[in-house]
Amino acid sequence: MQVYFDNSATTRVSKNAADKAYRIMTEVYGNPSSLHSLGIKAEAELTSARKSVAKSLGADEREIYFTSGATEANNLALFGTVESRKRTGNKIVTSAIEHSSVIDACKRLENMGYEVVYLKPRDDGRISETDLQNAVDENTVLVSLMAVNNETGAIQPYNAVKRIIKQKNSPALFHCDCVQAYGKLMIKAEKIGADLLSVTAHKIHGPKGVGAIYIKRGTRIIPQHYGGEQESKIRPGTQASALIGAFGCAVNEIDYSAINHVAEIRDYIKTFVETLDRAYINSPKDALPYILNVSIEGIRSETMMHFLASREIYASSGSACAKGKQSHVLTAMGLSKQRTDSALRLSFSRLSTMEEAEYFCRVLKEGTESLVRK
Question: Does residue 112 sit in helix, strand or coil?
Fold first, then answer.
């Protein structure tokens, strides 16, 4: 049996999304900016996908701009926002457990002279609302906080950000990285008060290489690329119409009710892991069920992952972007080096099955009994 428990890294593209991409590449292959019939048909595919993404976020289609993925969307949100507001203030508030596309962008902004506050999580992996409130002030131009952490599944207080900004009478805009929450939690941009919001296709059974940024109408942002009229000049360049069309198709297949099925799988594995010797659950109790982070202390992550892969079980030690480096998320949570060195991230999708969970538990038990602990 092949078991794929690395869905937070990427998901399998749905057949309908793949078929849509193939059809556009082979039949509706015109440049969406061309004025002939093939171009007009390609533009219609973009419009349809834009409407789907907008509807999923409770937004107007004119507030959705397609990008190459969430990394570009996050970078555009951070650099584009602070550049447009440099006369307003120079402080950015974020967390120490953001995705590297936010953390690294913030480090670059620090080098450019901006003050960046990296809020540390509590030991359950959540950012404290009190800490957030204490950090935001009249000099803050941007608060960037993810909705769900990509390593632990901890749900962050994204619903409180806009309220705190208003309470502190701050001019700050709110950017929310919704990559791990999108398609799982029903998040509406206006309801949570986001001024900017990032999503990507390949976490919801769409293709890699395409994402989107929501920019609230009236929010000024400076483009980071130049050279064309596409995406209202916010993200110029010929649109990847096949990928965008497939993205829209994947959005239309979102099933929020799948969270119940996924929770059953997560709970089964969690209960089993708790019976193992020197095993720990690193995800909080109220984490998004799609992610479960565990540690089998004494067995390095890489060793266990190789063992699981030899039985055709695929998981990870954390963010795929980290390339196996020690987790900055678990470190920020204050976990011991032994816990972080042995961490495994299991991430599920609507395609995951209980049979896969049972097989995983059998193999994990075999691994804990046969691998040498250090």
Answer: coil
